[in-house]
Write a structure and sequence with these properties.
Shape: elongated
Number of strands: 22
Strand content: 15-25%
Number of helices: 25
Helix content: 40-55%
Structural class: alpha+beta
Low-confidence stretches: 273-281, 781-787
Largest sheet: 9 strands, mixed
Length: about 775
């Protein structure tokens, strides 16, 4: 056995029993007769060896007194506690130890003959300073705390697992004595030392080596602090990023806690944050028993309903198996999982789910190739460390979510929540490959076999209304300009002014007949480049205050936000904005309810009115079984919401600055399609040449007319449903009957064919009037209509 001692010290250690003898002599009169006789015998024995009182500095010589020391120190080392206590006689920090308790001897024996006993992280420098501080505190009575510093010794056991021991020194039987080489320090010198801990030369100057005598002995006691120490080390490891090397360190710590030399740790990261699935296993670059060499899909299959893994997630408890073979016999339903572990040489294991509130973060896995290493009793040791694991994993997932969100915002922009999970998965693939130093190009996101729904509430004749507003504003502006130039010409009869009056009157005549974008643009250019140039120049050169005032007043009226020449256009734009804002808000609010039935992709756009697109299907929510009735439910929901939006428009209409009308349209497309997120356009688009037919219909249908007629298929106050097949017609007639029963639609239903569009033939339509109600209670919760 090797006992390491630091090479230099301010002390010259001398082992002596003088303080023990003194204490016994002082207390002998207070003892009972039996105790007094015992102590007298001890004193008689020790007096036979005066060198034990005077002190022995040669540690080799002390070995001759081992038997006598054991007898003399028997009160301090009770025989009945020798197998329990970890104690020895020593000089503090020096580890020249003797009179070991039996348990201490066994611990050192298990460590092996080559083991060297050391205080953890105590360098020669710190060792020397610590000894000097003992002198400063004890001999110079300077108030300095040195006992608050925790001291540890790390000793391997017979299995090679490191055990951690807290060290305590009892110095009641020690004296610190000066020698001829000792230096007696002033308070100022002591303060100088304490302010310069790292200056070893200064400490050596004030406390030369072996300049003080440390006479007596101390009792060193060790306390097993393996679990507490391991938890502390574990917390320290968790402060750093988890990687393969860090994972190995964590594994060593778990071996110490469970005393299992062949313990193997694994972790299966569960990325529920990636999607709204019940469970999503994430591939990782550290070991997982459950994933092992299996695919993610196979791993997720282990969590089937009714299995042990699903139960531990449900109950938030451990699954501890001491004998995997016995468990296979008694729980045959778990054979798939148990066989997976058996192939990895596992004989006993613990699986522990890690949660952050309601969110599953992952599964911690501990395994051993020996039967009985783990069981439901020692699994409770995890209670001390699970909070730290949970906290660390929570931070990991939050950081990962933030990184994923940053990638999504950069590469995809804003994404609807129903499909966000797929974008998160792709962003995670990017992060995972980047962490491994691999190039990865983000793929386009595609959802196959989804049913499209499209509807719009369009401001009827919005183009004509807008043109009429522009026409009124321009007529007023041209009339004002004619009057202004006639005033100027009356005071300054230049031929040029007469020419401009003539030109403006021609424009006024054109405006009174019709308005087109061509006329509007030509007139605006003419006014800005010619008329305004003349007015500004004339204003700068005339002294006529009346004309200056009229010109200034004219230019005030040309301001788009306040001027009277923009009044009609402002009122039209405000009306469109109010309609869009009101209808979009209603649609968005109703969508929250619709998403709860079956999640689907939804987007809406504001133009001259509000249009929306929805896509529903199994590929959007892969963890939920899709049935046709979810599609039918959404179609019925759409019709009712369109009726409700029509009613809200009628309520809003009297308050609009510009009177407008709206018409409603729904497009039925019974064939599932694919949608693809276009990276260049940052939006979803129809995927595939056949599916483009749907997009063509969407863009052209609202301007279509009834076949062999000049009448538009949409009319104010009516809901138009475009479809193609008889089956779709029957389906929507049933919906209409329900809404008629609820007094939301008129009794009369029109049916007609739609004119052939470019490349699109055979479309038909149903058209029915919307009933308006002042009492909005007619629109009860859609839950009443839920299938």
């Amino acid at each position: 056995m090797m006992f390491n001692s630091h090479k230099i010290s301010p002390f010259k250690p001398v082992i002596s029993l003088h303080k023990v003898v003194k204490a016994l002599e002082e207390e002998i009169e207070e003892l009972s007769d039996f105790q007094r006789n015992y102590v007298e015998d001890l004193l008689e024995e020790v007096n036979k060896f005066p060198e034990l009182l005077e002190g022995i500095s040669d540690m080799e010589e002390l070995n001759r007194y081992e038997f006598h020391l054991k007898i003399l120190l028997s009160d301090l080392f009770p025989f009945l506690l020798t197998d329990n206590e970890i104690k020895a006689v020593t000089i503090p920090f020096h580890f020249n130890i003797l009179n070991l308790s039996r348990r201490f001897k066994n611990i050192l024996s298990d460590a092996g003959g080559e083991f060297s006993l050391n205080l953890r992280n105590l360098s020669d420098h710190n060792f020397y300073v610590m000894n000097c501080c003992v002198i400063i505190k004890t001999y110079f009575n300077y108030p300095i705390e040195i006992t608050d510093i925790p001291l540890f010794i790390d000793i391997p056991d017979a299995n090679g697992i490191t055990r951690h021991y807290r060290v305590m020194f009892n110095a009641d039987f020690l004296d610190i004595l000066p020698t001829d080489q000792s230096k007696f320090l002033s308070q100022e010198e002591i303060r100088l030392l304490l302010d310069n801990k790292d200056n070893l030369d200064l400490w050596l100057e004030k406390f030369p080596p072996q300049s003080w005598v440390l006479k007596g002995f101390s009792i060193m006691t060790l306390f097993d602090a393996t679990i507490e120490n391991a938890i502390s080390n574990f917390k320290g490891n968790l402060l750093s990023d988890i990687n393969e090397n860090r994972f190995e360190n964590v594994e060593i710590i778990f071996k110490s806690i469970f005393k299992v030399p062949q313990l193997k740790i694994g972790f299966t990261l569960i990325g529920n944050f990636l999607q709204r699935l019940n469970l999503k296993v994430i591939e990782q670059n550290y070991f997982s028993h459950l994933l092992n060499e299996s695919s993610v899909k196979d791993c997720e299959a282990l969590f089937d309903e009714g299995g042990a893994l699903r139960e531990i997630l449900k109950n938030r408890t451990y699954w501890a198996v001491s004998d995997i073979d016995y468990c296979t016999e008694t729980q045959p339903e778990e054979q798939r999982l148990l066989e997976l572990l058996k192939k990895q040489g596992v004989k006993s294991f613990i699986l522990v789910p890690i949660f952050d509130r309601e969110k599953l973060l992952g599964i911690l896995e501990l395994s051993s190739p020996r039967v009985g290493d783990f069981n439901s009793v020692n699994a409770s040791k995890l209670d001390y460390i699970l909070p730290f694991i949970q906290d660390k994993l929570s931070h990991i997932t939050v950081d990962m979510e933030n990184e994923i969100e940053a990638i999504i915002q950069k590469e995809y922009t804003s994404i609807h929540p129903s499909v966000l999970w797929r974008f998160k998965e792709e962003a995670f693939e990017f992060i995972k490959n980047r962490s491994m130093g691999l190039e990865y190009t983000l793929k386009e996101i595609v959802f196959h076999e989804v049913y499209p729904l499209y509807g719009q509430i369009d401001v009827q004749g919005s183009s004509n209304s807008r043109n009429a507003a522009i026409q009124k504003d321009l007529i007023l502006q041209v009339q004002d300009l004619i009057s202004l130039f006639e005033l100027i010409f009356g005071k300054a009869p230049l031929p040029l002014f007469e020419q401009k009056i003539y030109e403006l009157k021609n424009y006024l005549e054109e405006l009174n007949q019709l308005i087109s974008s061509h006329i509007e643009q030509r007139l605006q250019n003419y006014i800005v480049s010619e008329i305004h140039t003349i007015l500004n120049n004339f204003k700068s050169n005339t002294s006529d205050s009346q004309i200056k005032g009229e010109i200034n007043y004219y230019f005030e009226k040309t301001k788009p936000l306040t001027g009277v020449f923009y009044k009609e256009r402002r009122e039209f734009d405000q009306s469109i904005s109010l309609i869009n804002k009101k209808l979009a808000r209603i649609l968005d609010e109703k969508q929250v309810e619709a998403q709860s039935y079956f999640p689907h992709y939804y987007e809406r756009f504001k133009t001259d009115g509000v249009e929306h697109s929805m896509y529903i299907g199994a590929s959007i929510v892969p963890d939920k079984e899709f049935h046709d009735y979810y599609l039918h439910n959404l179609r019925l929901w759409e019709l009712q919401v369109m009726c409700e939006m029509e009613n809200y428009f009628q309520e809003l209409r009297p308050s609009l600055p510009h009177d407008l009308e709206v018409s409603s349209l729904v497009l039925v497309f019974g064939t599932p399609i694919s949608i693809r997120f276009r990276m260049d356009e940052k939006q979803f688009d129809i995927d595939g040449s056949y599916n483009v037919r749907y997009e063509i219909v969407k863009k052209r249908i609202d301007k279509a007319k009834i076949k062999n007629s000049d009448q538009r298929i949409t009319q104010p106050g009516k809901l138009t449903i475009i479809y193609q097949s008889k089956e779709e017609e029957r389906e929507y007639l049933n919906y209409i009957k329900l809404l008629q029963h609820k007094n939301m639609l008129d009794k009369e239903v029109e049916k007609f064919d739609i004119e052939d569009l470019q490349g699109i033939i055979g479309l038909r339509a149903l058209r029915v009037g919307v009933i308006y109600h002042e009492n909005k209670e007619i629109y009860t919760d859609f839950k009443m209509m839920k299938t």
